[in-house]
Amino acid sequence: MNVLARLARNTSYSVCVNHKVSTTAAASNKQGDVELVNFGLEGSNNLVIDVSICCDHIGNSTVNNRHLTGKMHTNDYLQARAGVKNKRYKDDYTAVDTAFAPAIVSVNGEIHPEFLRLLWVLADKQTCNYYALIVAEEEIGSGGFHVESSTHALF
Q1: What's the mean per-residue pLDDT of the chain?
Q2: pTM of the full predicted structure?
Q3: Where do the domains of the chain lie?
């Protein structure tokens, strides 16, 4: 969550984390983990992200007489987790004109496609900001602050 917030800050978005994130409508009062203020999506200004890390193994040692311990999920467990997050938050945030996106990753390194797209958007914006700074520095060095050498002899 902190890495996502840091990446968003590096793209010059204003970022709120944890208890500073906007809540949903007063009736549900739910709250995501990270909020990008003035993100600029059509129909809403802000984007709230709820971060979730899940495991690709089923259950624990007490399930079904310990027969499931260590078995891998065979279906799309990242999509299932994203579905749960969307069901929990999306409509409530839409009611307050805020976009919502789940950020689902697995402990084995898999990234849910919606979160991967968000990371790409943030990385692209950060890269564009970086190149804009380089161009600005080149313009500064090309003549804006050029000092003419004096033709007067010192001796």
Answers
A1: 77
A2: 0.71
A3: 2-127
